């Protein structure tokens, strides 16, 4: 009987304990794989999330909040700023290009973003739409590929937006709405219900963006003046949410920040700096997960060790017979180490598959919530380290029981 056949029979003989050991290894590996894929996706998504726009101008408040809302379509804007700020930015000699952005409405939870169509050429180059054409008039819109896929929208469809950045709940009845709104103003009632429908203003879909693998895939884009048209604002009341700026140089970005920051409730933010703060926060969470991962690795190693100790205790008589039949000490040593490696390798393969399957199942939810595109089929250099690390732990856990059997005399093994 070959060494592998003997090892396989020994593993199958102790099915339950072997299954527990494989599960412990598989869960640990799957957890590590999912952590690696998620961390890499967050880092890549954060880096390419803002494109060439190194500066953003918006209302005073949290810098991180302004950047996340502007480029990643997460959270609420810090407020509105005068339309004149766009004029000042575009006239600044250190500005290559600047675009106004208006936000505040949504369609079924996906943000409606007002921005000039030049934004797409500046950020993505001369890329063609997946279908249709860019918007040109108020009320026309294009949608991200994820929005089109999720909602089943196509070119020519129309829809109404709603106030707010998330889809709210409708009141259950007219009586409930009247009771809840009694004695409260229009703003308080809107806040209670989460959003206000803008059914009288319809958007016509003129095009669908290709897959950009950025947060723009899950947004609806239209003209900057959509918010003014929806709310019927006069020229003197018109404001914007932010100004996206592509400076002509790093020195130009510094001059712009100094010029706009802190004036009339306006702030200018280095995009990369705000994104770095978010990544630092993610790294802090990764360190905690790293500790948990280390504990899982330790438990997996203990599971392998206990399994092989139990196997060695059960198999002393069998090993004694093998030695009396002329099998060498090395053969006996290999039977246990091979068993440990077989259990580890089985758990490793199951863990790799489970980790990537988990990433596949989570990718849409993660992208919908944070605009982070996880790649479930991507293999990273860390995968090689995971494989080597798992096999090393399996081998090290096997050495103790294997050497114990290796050092015993065949008669002593048989008598025991």
Automatic annotation (TrEMBL):
Membrane topology note: Multi-pass membrane protein
Domain MacB-like periplasmic core: 18-227
Entry keyword set: Cell membrane, Membrane, Transmembrane, Transmembrane helix
Domain ABC3 transporter permease C-terminal positions: 291-410
UniProt cross-references to InterPro entries, sorted A to Z: ABC-4/HrtB_transporter (IPR051125), ABC3_permease_C (IPR003838), MacB_PCD (IPR025857)
Keyword Transmembrane helix: yes
Acidic residues: compositionally biased ranges: 169-178
Composition bias type Basic and acidic residues, residue spans: 179-197
Region (Disordered): 163-197
Subcellular location: Cell membrane
Pfam families, sorted: FtsX, MacB_PCD
Transmembrane segments: 16-37, 288-309, 330-353, 385-406
Location (main, coarse): membrane
Record PANTHER family: ABC TRANSPORTER PERMEASE, ABC TRANSPORTER, MEMBRANE PROTEIN
Subunit relationships: The complex is composed of two ATP-binding proteins (HrtA), two transmembrane proteins (HrtB) and a solute-binding protein.
Described purpose of this protein according to its UniProt entry: Part of the ABC transporter complex hrt involved in hemin import. Responsible for the translocation of the substrate across the membrane.
UniProt record similarity statement: Belongs to the ABC-4 integral membrane protein family. HrtB subfamily.
The protein's name in its UniProt record: Putative hemin transport system permease protein HrtB
Organism encoding this protein: Paenibacillus tritici
